[in-house]
Q: What sequence folds into this?
């Protein structure tokens, strides 16, 4: 008899609530092993590959590529029965048995430490490769059995729903009127005849997720009066917000075919937009600018490229800007801090996780180099190259994008001279590095061509006042103008 286990979309870190299925690596009928990668998902922060916690045969893919589902939604069924056959239907075992049993793979196959089902620190078992262990086995709360004559919990069609999976869409219909069990008395019949017959509305089907239904209830919006714009005719939070505010649907504006394209806001771009809005309207931004003659730094870059230790390492101007920033942070540690609103404290970081803003096909991301202040120039160059290549390939993990303390955005790679960057949330400073161009420059009273760039430093004025921001930016520019200062300030 087939025994199909349902693998549910896990929270891969940072309290994520949903993910988009980017690519399936398996199809129904394929045989899979424990910890084999079966799917790639995109969360609000990065693309992540998920391994399978069991060995068996793929019975069914519950979610199609390109679809976004909530955490906890079953996405794939695995037939783990001995000799499981392709295309086997869901198990007839109780619902609680379908919950993945953490720490189990096959009966006779040991699992290596760090993999799903393998040993972890403290005697616990790993629940997802690369993410924290869970000390208990997930259990589903048993459902209450309702007798046929038991009263319905609510007569409101929005909440009178059958038990379903968390992210399943539910069709809500008005409750049917109960048929009388015995003929009414003559007096009751006369009363009914005297009363006007209530108008019966046509049956309405509403498709919406449970969180959306609750949102509608909180705003007092009737779901049956909304024209849905979501996939397959589902009602979205935006539909409810427009109805509550009385705004017209943008989709109702007719435009000639091909003149507009609508791109769903989701994944990395959605998260970035929310973070930027929160940062711009939370931290008071101040931006200062400086123009730097970094001819000496560019000459140093050419010499470093010829060193044997850097033969296979990419040496760029960004490397020396990052190194100069790290030295300036050492001289002005308050620039590397954050504002804790809840505790009413300024948190000064005695380490530097250097963020590098990277433009990808999925949107802007800011992975960071952990403990960058402890790296040599060569190690920093290797870390920058690895970070850039990983980001462009879409393989940056959520862990690589958390914990940053200060950020550099290299707008010069696009030929842009300068800009006013927005702070990465949780940080107090961000540096924009412009293009390095040959520019007429006055040296000892004569105009000569020099390699010149512009730097822009945005900072949180709650923490960094004008003097500190100016001193930090001036020191950074001084190092780029005269790299020998790095020896004196190291």
A:
């Amino acid at each position: 008899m087939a025994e199909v286990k349902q693998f549910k979309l896990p929270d891969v870190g940072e309290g994520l609530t949903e993910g988009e299925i980017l690519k399936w690596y398996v199809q129904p009928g394929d045989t899979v092993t424990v910890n084999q990668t079966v799917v790639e998902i995109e969360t609000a922060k990065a693309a992540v590959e998920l391994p399978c916690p069991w060995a068996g045969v793929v019975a069914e893919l519950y979610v199609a590529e390109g679809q976004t589902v909530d955490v906890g939604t079953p996405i794939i069924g695995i037939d783990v029965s001995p000799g499981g056959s392709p295309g086997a239907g869901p198990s007839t075992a109780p619902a609680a048995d379908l919950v993945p049993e953490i720490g189990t793979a096959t009966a006779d196959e040991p699992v290596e430490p760090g993999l799903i089902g393998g040993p972890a620190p403290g005697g616990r078992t790993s629940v997802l490769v690369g993410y924290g262990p869970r000390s208990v086995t997930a259990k589903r709360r048993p459902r209450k059995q309702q007798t046929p004559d038991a009263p319905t919990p609510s007569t409101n069609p929005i909440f009178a729903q059958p038990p379903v999976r968390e992210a399943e869409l539910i069709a809500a219909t008005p409750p049917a009127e109960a048929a009388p069990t015995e003929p009414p008395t003559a007096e009751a019949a006369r009363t009914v005849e005297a009363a006007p017959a209530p108008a019966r509305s046509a049956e309405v089907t509403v498709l919406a997720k449970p969180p959306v239904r609750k949102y509608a209830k909180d705003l007092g919006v009737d779901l049956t009066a909304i024209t849905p714009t979501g996939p397959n005719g589902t009602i979205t939070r935006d539909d409810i917000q427009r109805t509550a505010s009385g705004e017209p649907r943008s989709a109702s504006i007719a435009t000639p075919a091909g003149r507009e394209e609508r791109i769903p806001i989701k994944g990395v771009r959605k998260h970035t937009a929310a973070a930027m809005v929160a940062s711009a309207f939370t931290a008071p931004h101040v931006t200062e600018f400086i123009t730097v003659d970094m001819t000496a730094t560019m000459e140093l870059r050419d010499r470093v490229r010829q060193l044997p230790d850097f033969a296979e390492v990419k040496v760029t101007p960004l490397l020396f800007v990052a190194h100069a920033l790290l030295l300036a942070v050492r001289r002005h540690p308050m620039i590397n801090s954050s504002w804790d609103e809840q505790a009413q404290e300024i948190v000064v970081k005695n380490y530097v996780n250097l963020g590098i803003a990277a433009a990808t096909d999925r949107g802007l991301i800011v992975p960071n180099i952990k403990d960058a202040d402890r790296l040599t120039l060569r190690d920093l160059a290797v870390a920058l190259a690895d970070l850039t290549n990983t980001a462009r390939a879409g393989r940056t993990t959520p862990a690589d994008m958390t914990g940053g303390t200060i950020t550099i955005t290299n707008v010069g790679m696009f030929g842009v001279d300068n800009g006013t960057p927005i702070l990465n949330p949780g940080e107090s400073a961000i540096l924009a590095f412009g293009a390095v161009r040959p520019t007429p420059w006055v040296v000892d009273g004569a105009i000569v061509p020099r390699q010149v760039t512009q730097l822009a430093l945005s900072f949180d004025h709650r923490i960094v006042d004008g003097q500190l921001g100016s001193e930090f930016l001036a020191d950074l520019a001084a190092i780029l103008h005269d790299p020998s200062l790095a020896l004196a300030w190291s």
The chain is about 20% helix and 20% strand. The first strand starts at residue 4 and ends at 8.
